[in-house]
Amino acid sequence: MEPRDIKMKERLYIYWKIWVTVASYAFQETFLNRWTNALFLFGKLIRFGMLLVFLFLLHQNISGIAGYSIDQVIVFYLTYQFTDTLAQIMYRGVYSFSTSVRTGELDFYLSKPINPLFRILTGKPDILDVLFFFPTTAASLWILSHLQLHITFNSVVIYFALLINSFLIVTAFHIFVACLGVLTTEVDNAIMLYRDFTNLSRFPVSIYGEPFRTVLLFVIPVGIMNTVPAQVLMHTQPSVGMLTAVLIGLGFFILSLRTWKWSIRKYTSAGG
Fold it and tell me: What whole-number distance in Å separates Cα of residue 148 and Cα of residue 144?
């Protein structure tokens, strides 16, 4: 193994240990208010249960939407559910990032020998969403196994590869929100706007008319994030080619990193 590879491996291990430590603190904090958090988790489960009821009613009463069978529409819902829950687990720290900017805590992040963006994005993992992730994923897999779909091993492999690309897009969205936090000390409206756009991808973006469909694919690429992986899994014609989807994901991610570097140069620290 090359020395550079060894150094990279050690670096990744350090970041993993940091995340595990932060996650353990978050886990302990959760149990300080165990009843409040138990009720919150119960509310999440009720919400997911209502989603299952909604999907069941769709399955019983609607034959299809915009050329997709109702079983295919359910796959779009479940793909959205997976990516959204994973984003909540990993990047919950962005939701409170504006407080770090206003109080000067960002100065503390910048002074440490780890990437401040890593600390901002992953600094407050949502343990409740971790607990929520396992039963919802198991339920989603059970639902998928009972749908009338043509799914092959190759389509599953490509599906998960495109989900990695989706995670790059999710990461880029949260980096852009962090950039706004640095520039404006406000992230609440931006993160809610992001969630509103991702909610639109519960359905395949092909149901929307132009130019809105193009916006959801190429400008705010939630369609690349959720629609294209589901289409490939089911062997339906994807809204864009797989190579194009990957290039958009990588380009969006690289643009977010460049925007972060630009915004952090504009930061004047807590002391002005």
Answer: 9
Nearest to 180 by CA among 193, 198, 196: 193
The CA distance from 73 to 153, in Å, is 20
Count of Cβ atoms closer than 10 Å to residue 249 Cβ: 24
Structure tokens at 43: 């509310």
Q: What is the pTM for the complete model shown?
A: 0.85
Q: What is the pLDDT of residues 59-71, one digit of tens each?
A: 677 766 777 888 8
Three-state SS string over 98-129 comes to HHHHHHCHHHHHHCCCCCHHHHHHHCCCCHHH
The answer to whether the beta carbons of residues 227 and 201 sit under 8 Å apart is yes
Average pLDDT over residues 80-104: 84
Let me know: does 56 contact 220? Beta carbons within 8 Å.
no
Burial 167-185 (b: 16+ CB within 10 A, else e): bbbbbbbbbbbbbbbbeee
In 3D space, the residue among 40, 36, 199 whose CA is nearest the CA of residue 131 turns out to be: 40
Asked if omega into 221 is within 30° of 0 (cis), the reply is no
